[in-house]
Amino acid sequence: MPVIPLLNGEVVEVHIENGAFVEKGDVLVELDATDMDLNLAQAQAGLDAAEASLESAKNMRKQSIKQAEIQLEQAEDIYDMILEAE
């Protein structure tokens, strides 16, 4: 029966003897995970940066809304003052 790896990589340890019987799911070899670990760390760093950017955008949106509310209130006050002056 053919053995098809799910990942490519350098074999660092063989867990079976040649000709041994194995069952589905048995670990046959261990691969060097250095490159995969680096890729995972880079992906995690990218995710962390994206989450920080999202949080920053949310805060900026809240500040923009607050500023717009203040400007609206000021405009309403000016409008009321003009009406009272007439």
Q: Secondary-structure blueprint of this entry?
A:
Layout (H helix, E strand, L loop, with lengths): L10 E4 L14 E3 L2 H52 L1
Antiparallel strand pairs: 1-2
Give the helix tally.
1
Using only C-alpha atoms, the radius of gyration works out to 31 Å
Strand content of the residues, in percent? 5-15%
Q: What letter string, H or E per element, gives the SSE order?
A: EEH
What would you call the structural class? mainly alpha
- Provide mean pLDDT, rounded: 93
Give the overall shape.
rod-shaped
Number of DSSP-assigned strands = 2
- pLDDT under 50 segments (min length 5)? none
Assign a percent range to the helix content. 55-70%
Largest sheet: 2 strands, antiparallel
Distance between the termini: 95 Å
For the largest beta sheet, what order do the strands appear in spatially?
Answer: 1-2
What is the domain total for the residues? 1
What does this structure look like?
By secondary structure, the chain is mainly α. The protein is built from one helix and two strands. It has a two-stranded antiparallel sheet with strand order 1-2.
